[in-house]
Design brief:
By secondary structure, the chain is mainly β. Helix content is 10%, strand content 43%. The chain contains 3 helices and 14 strands. It starts with a strand and ends with a strand.
Length: 202
C-alpha cells in the first residue's frame, strides 16, 4: 500500500539540507514545528542501525490517546564542527516527498555575501526529520539585515553548508512538500509516553 500524502503550502522554502551521515548523503528536513524527530526505515537499514521496538501512547490535541507501536533508532550524528549529537529517531516508512532542486539564481543576487551553492536545495527523498526534541541541531540566527531580505531569511545551521534558506520570493517556484499521513500523525503529537520496550531487531 502506497503512503498517503497531505500537501503543505506551496512556494515556501522550508529548511532542508544535504548532510553526510556516516558517509551517506542524506536529505534532512529541520522543522521546529514538529516535536518528534524521525528517520525512514530504509535509511536506518542503509546506515546499519538497529531498531528498538517500542509501544507508546500518543496524545494529539483534541483527540483521545492512541496506542501505537514504533521503532526507535539511535544515531550519533556528527555536525560540520565535528561535534556529535546522539539522536533517538522514530522509524517511519516514508517522511515526505521532496521534488528536488530549485532555481535560486535570483536569490544569490539578493544575498551577494553568500557563496553560490551554499543555499542550494537538495534532491531526493527526505531521510531524516529533526524536530524540537533535538533543538541543538535546528537553525538559528538570521537577524542581521544582510540575512533578512523581504520574506527570505538565511539562518545558521550545524549541518550541510552551515546555512539554510527559508521563506518565499516571487522568483522561486518551489514545489510543495508533501508529508505522509503517518508523518503528520507523529508530527502533531503533543505527548509520547513509552509503555515498554520489546526486543531489538535489525
Amino acid at each position: 500500500q502506497q503512503p498517503e500524502f497531505m500537501t503543505q503550502e506551496p512556494e515556501v522554502l522550508l529548511h532542508m539540507v544535504s548532510h553526510a551521515v556516516q558517509g551517506v548523503e542524506v536529505v534532512i528536513f529541520m522543522d521546529d514545528g514538529s516535536n518528534a524527530s524521525m528517520i525512514t526505515h530504509k535509511l536506518a537499514k542503509r546506515l546499519g542501525l538497529k531498531g528498538e521496538v517500542m509501544h507508546q501512547l500518543m496524545e494529539v490535541l483534541g483527540r483521545p490517546p492512541e496506542a501505537i507501536t514504533t521503532s526507535i533508532y539511535e544515531l550519533n550524528l556528527k555536525d560540520i564542527y565535528g561535534d556529535i549529537t546522539k539522536l533517538r529517531l522514530i522509524g517511519i516508512e516514508r517522511i515526505a516527498t521532496n521534488c528536488g532542486p530549485v532555481d535560486l539564481s535570483e536569490i544569490y543576487k539578493i544575498f551577494p555575501h553568500v557563496k553560490k551553492g551554499a543555499l542550494d536545495r537538495p534532491a531526493g527523498d527526505i531521510g531524516i526529520l529533526l524536530g524540537q526534541d533535538i533543538v541543538r541541531l535546528l537553525p538559528c540566527g538570521g537577524d542581521e539585515p544582510r540575512d533578512l531580505q523581504g520574506n527570505l531569511r538565511i539562518m545558521k545551521t550545524r549541518l550541510g553548508s552551515g546555512m539554510v534558506l527559508g521563506g518565499s520570493h516571487p522568483s522561486v517556484k518551489a514545489t510543495p512538500l508533501c508529508l505522509t499521513r503517518e508523518a503528520i500523525k507523529l508530527y502533531k503529537g503533543v505527548k509520547m509516553s513509552r509503555f515498554y520496550t520489546a526486543t531489538s531487531y535489525n
